[in-house]
Structures are given as C-alpha cells and as structure tokens.
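USER:
I would value a second opinion on how I read folds in token form. Give me a protein, with the fold worked out from its sequence. Write it directly below this note and I will take it from there.

ASSISTANT:
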Amino acid sequence: MKTLQQWLDWCEQLHPVAIDMGLDRVKQVAERMDLRFDCPVITVAGTNGKGSTCAMLEAVLLQAGYRTGVYTSPHLVHFEERCRLHGESAQASVLADAFAAVEAVRGDVSLTYFEFSTLAILHAMAGAALDVVILEVGMGGRLDAVNIVDADCTIITSVDIDHAAILGPDRETIGREKAGVMRAGRPVIVSDPVPPRSVIGHGEALGADVWLFGRDFNYSGDKQQWAWAGRDRRYSGMAYPALRGANQLINASGVLAALEALRQRIPVTAQAVRNGLAMVELPGRFQIVPGQPVLVLDVAHNPHSVAALAVNLDAMGFYPTTHAVLGAMADKDLLPMFQRVNPLVDRWYFTDLPLPRAARAADLQQMWQAQNQRGDVASSLHADPMQALQAAIDAADPADRIIVFGSFYTVGGVLKDGIPRLQAKHLSP
C-alpha cells in the first residue's frame, strides 16, 4: 500500500468484525510502536457534544499559541479530517506513512479499521512536536482504542442511550463505560448537568479529581452575553460561542473547566478564551448555510441529539414549510427521533446511505408512516443524500427551510461537493 486510500481499503477487510471492543490487541501493537506523548492529553468521552467540545478546546488553545493535535471520528467527507495538526487536517501522505508504521510492527495481531487508524493517527501526532493533544472517544470509553492513552484530564459530555447493544440499555450502564477514561488523581470534568450516578461514583472510588457542573463550575447569561465561573476563575461579558445551539454553553462550560484544571501546564489568557470561542468552527453541528431557502445541516443521530436539534429549530422562528432530508443507521432508536421532530416537518425526503449498517430509505419511510398522525405531510424516497437534497430544493419556496440530519454520512453526503456547490443550488435570494 502506498496511498492513504489504499491503506483504508485494506484496513476495512483486515479484521473479521467491524467493532471488537477491547484494549488487549491495540495495546500490544502500541507497545511495539513505543507510542507516548510528552505533552498534556485531554480525552473527551460522552454521547453527544464530543465534537463540539474538542473543537472549542482546539480553538482556544490555538489562540493561546499552542501547537495542538486533535483526533476525532467519524469524518464527514475526507478521512484526513480525523487528524488535525496545528489547526489543519493532516496531509494524506503523513497518514499513509503512519499506517505503514503500524503495519511494520503489527505482526499477526488483527486490528479493526478503527483500531488500526487510531494507532496510525496517534503515531502521526506523537511525531508532530505538539504542546497539547485532544482525543475524542469513538464509542463508550473503557474499551475504546483511544483509552490506551492515559489522559491528564478527561471530559465527559452528555450521557444518553446510544449503541445500546454494545454499551448497555440505560444511562447508568452507559455512564460506567464512559467513566472508564478517568485516571486516578487527575481531573475529570463532568459537563452533563444531570450525570448518571455511575459516573460520579466511579470517579470518587478511583480517586479522580471530579469537577461537577453546578458544583465546581457553572454559567449564566442573557440574550446578549454569558458568564462562566469555576473553582478559582471567572469570565464575564463573553460573546456566545460561534457554534449555534443552546447546548453549546454546556459544552463550552466543560471546556473552560478543563482549561482551569490544567492551567499550571497549559495556561491560557482570557483573550484567548474569548477569541477561540468566537471563532470556532465545526461543520455539521446545527450549521446554517445562508441562502434561500435556509439550509440546516446537523449530524444528530440519536434521540438525545435530535431533541436538541428540535429545540434549536424551534428557536429559529417561523418558516412556512420545513423540508427534512433523513438518512440513518438501522440500529438507532428511530421511533423517538421521529416523534420529537415530526411536528416540525412538513415534507420528508428519505435517503439510502452507502454502507451496510444503514437503514433503507423505504424502511425509514415505513417507520415514519407507522407513527405519523398528520395527514398533510408528504414523503419521498431517494438513492443518496444529494439527490434527496436536490428534490427538497426543487420543491421548496424561498421562504422555506430545509434540514439535513440523521447521520454523519447523511450530512457528509451533501457536503462532499463543498459548501459553494450547495449555495449555488439554492434558489436565488
């Protein structure tokens, strides 16, 4: 293999199953690679809000002058998005070399696509002369490949039910899996306002320095500005984060708590905080694309994140008609997702997605019809997200609104040609 795409294609067929939770195999290869970091590491776990938290951490730390490395997953369009070095996506050639470094020592150890790519990205980061590393957990925490790294600080964002077949059927069980990223004697920031008892209990039993929302840090605000208070630091009169949505203040609060907890090692100024939060960008998180009709892109893909999407849509004000493009994984809890957003949608465009885990558009339509009680709502089926979006644009009036949601693959499917192409497809203002 020479190119990154060749490595990715090969990794997809290397292991007999796509998800194989456990750290033994990946630890074994990491030890052969002598993977280590000589800078602070922040690991972010949770059900929703992980990507936003990582993006805000990165933005503030870059403004403070630090050389950052960020690992997030999945990507929207290009695999290189998963590894950001010094604020930019890693070069494909750098990642291809990193995959080769994993293969050089892997021997007969079988690795999943996620495990192999995690080791490669960690290797690329370890050689990039970084000041701080930010790692987003892929699934759960305790048995996720990212957890081979001992974090200096962990953040646990919202905890809700997702991947129930693997992580457990309730918040307490899932919370315990996510709490597995904690380390004894080190700070753990719990930004979920009502965390499962399993999260707090594990942190206390482990001897971690547990920071709780509402006890160790909090925020307040009005329509113009917001303020944050931690154990020893306060910020007031701040502009709202550039990422949209009411839930982003909770994520930002966790970010500021983590930065306070690590202030002895990576101090940041108040100006870096203000600038970073004001300039942060993250595609696909309640992303509003200007034009007529208004276009909203959101990777919401479970009941908790779809509920947040519905609140944010409500806050946008009145639109004569809301068109919804939906593609989703078959293993998601789809009924409550439909129930939460159905009152806001006047026309549905269901789309297939190009992977085995995805629900077929026809199956999504059938699930929606089974719970729909509105006789005035139409629906249609489409082969891919871009075709579904084009159908919505063709049917919409300039004053309408289009939302695209349900999966990273759904939003990625309409972003693959870039935002300028999307804007060009909008009706003229």
Summary: The chain has two domains: 4-279, 287-425. Residues 92-106 form the longest helix (15 residues). The chain has a mean pLDDT of 93. The chain is about 40% helix and 15% strand.
